[in-house]
Amino acid sequence: MDSSRLLFFILLVISGSEYSARADPDDDLTWIIPDRAEPNCEDEELESLDLLEGEAFPFVHTEMPDWKLPDEHFLWYKNSSKIEYISSDEKERIHHHGGALVFLNVSTEDSGFYTCQYNRSGQCDNYRVEVNVFDASYKSNEDILWGKIENSDVNKKVPCPDSVTSICDKFNGKFTWYKDFNILKGHHEDNIWIYDASKDDEGIYTCICTWEHNHILYNSSASRRLILLESSSPGEPEILPNREQFADKGAETKLTCSVFCGTNAPKDCKASWHVNGKPFVNTKGYNQTIKTITENPSKKTISTAILTIERVSAGDFSKEYKCVGQSLYGKKSAPFTLKRRATIVPLVIGGLCALLLSVFLAMLVKYFAIDLALLFRPYFPLSRQKDAKLFDAYVVYQTPSGDKAAEDTFCQFMTKILPSVLEEKCGYRLFIHGRDDIPGEDRLELVEDRMKLSRRLMVILTPGSKSGTEVPDICPTSPLNSVGGFDWQVGLHHALMQAEMNVILIQLGDTGPEGYTHLPPGLQHLIRCSAPIRWPESSSSAAMWKSRFWKRVRYLMPAKPASKSTQSLII
User: Fold this and answer.
1) The domain containing residue 188 runs over which residues?
2) Residues 10 and 124 in one domain
3) 113 sits in which H/E element
């Protein structure tokens, strides 16, 4: 025991009027707590020190000056049920070097209040510290962490706390880093950098300084939690478009004011309503609610103010409403209009009128579809493509039965009306058996050749087949032309099997009770697919080339008549 401390102990003993003390036979440096502190010593601010069991830590009070003075200027002791004085012997687990209190391999029993009595120039100060030693399992508790690192930087810097850094600097220690208490190899600096940080990099980062004292290695550690904040991009408030609303008088309505304040910027982003130039105040029947959210995953920060009007009155339609948005970067407003909802009767009437007009136009277009097609067909290049065909239609016909009137109608149609309209008026070229046959040419070869040179197969149907009834000489006739004859077979073969020709069916007179049952199956199939065009014999305008009948025939004929060739070429 040094002389200065012995002198101090003697002074304590002889001051019985102020202190009551007795010696402990086991430890001559243990004293009962004085009734009060040294009257001439001033208590400085109490500091706190949190340590983990098994670690070492040299402590110096932040307000203590000249802590490196000789030991006799400092008296350290622990305040407990007994005053336990701290020795300056470096072999002790807890000792002091002047004003520095050194803990080596601390245990939970070392927790408590420690006081340093500092005497200099007749002045006495008490520097106090509360030491809390936690079990090692407590290492992840927030109470012993040295704060948090929270920012939105892309590259994160995690510095080792100054308390541990100063130990390593003084004792030439070595740093080791851990993340979530797992070692990070290759990191031995006083800080650690994390580049392009992500959520996976969040956690508790611990720096451990391993240093040597009296040829023994000790550890001092400190931990910090890293938290990644999402990047933010605040800006001027932007009023989202929603500038008017319709409402019914007497009904409830909600007016919505939405303000966009940037990305991930919920602070100081606020939407609100102004009515008649003044900030809205809740009154009976009127209520405003404000909510600010950051949407996921876009991270857009939007503040919404909803003005609820429980019963809309006539005066509410004349008020001036403004949606106001405010953020750190400015304030903006936009007018809002509350309109009376119009009756739906005009809408219903308008909808019915539009529907009727559409139906009328559809019927009109359908009725005049052929007229429109004939009108515009010459202007479409695809409908005017050239080919090597010499005839626009090869006409096959069914010689009528013995009915005199039917025969006359057939002759009139075949010899006058059909050529007059399609050839003279429309410029088409027709090949009609009995009229266009070339004397001396082989009949079968003639049919095959002319059929290949024709674009359409025009079939003239009459009420029945000829069965022995004579036909006037002026009518075109050919034994090949009877139903089921060679030209019929060749024509149907080209139309059905080879798909080389389109078929135009024209019906003269009534079909009779038999209908079309007497016709070949191929022709019956064509009739089922496309009904024949009936010749309106009784109509006064039937023979006119602009009549409805001839328009339908012309619609089925080629758009452009076949090129006229010399007779020699045809032969």
Assistant:
1) 142-228
2) yes
3) strand 112-120
Q: Which residues contact 305 (CB under 8 A, 6 or more apart)?
A: 256, 257, 259, 271, 272, 273, 288, 289, 290, 323
- Does 87 share its domain with 186? no
Count the Cβ atoms, other than its own, within 10 Å of residue 444. Answer: 12
How confident is the model over 235-291, as pLDDT tens digits? 788 998 888 888 988 899 999 999 998 887 777 899 999 999 999 999 999 999 999
The percent of residues above 70 in pLDDT, for the chain, comes to 83
Whether residue 177 sits in one domain with residue 56: no
pLDDT at 179 over 70: yes
Q: Is residue 384 part of a domain?
A: no
Residues 419, 432: Cα–Cα separation, whole Å:
9
Give me the half-sphere count of Cα atoms (radius 13 Å) on the Cβ side of residue 50.
15
Residues 324 and 368 in one domain: no
Decide which of 379 and 254 is more confident: 254
Nearest to 64 by CA among 97, 18, 93, 103: 97
Q: What average pLDDT score do residues 191-206 get?
A: 87
Give the whole-angstrom CA distance, residue 309 versus residue 302: 22
The answer to whether residue 267 sits within a structural domain is yes
Give the Cβ contact number of residue 189 at 10 Å: 11
- Please provide the DSSP assignment of 351-377 as one string: HHHHHHHHHHHHHHHHHTHHHHHHHHG
Query: In one letter, which amino acid is 336?
Result: F
Claim: this prediction has a pTM higher than 0.90: no
Q: What whole-number distance in Å separates Cα of residue 511 and Cα of residue 509?
A: 7
**Residue 257 lies inside a defined structural domain of this protein:** yes
Place of tokens 């006359």: 408
Residue at which a domain ends, from 168, 201, 228:
228
CATH of residue 205's domain is 2.60.40.10
Domain boundary among 228, 250, 273: 228
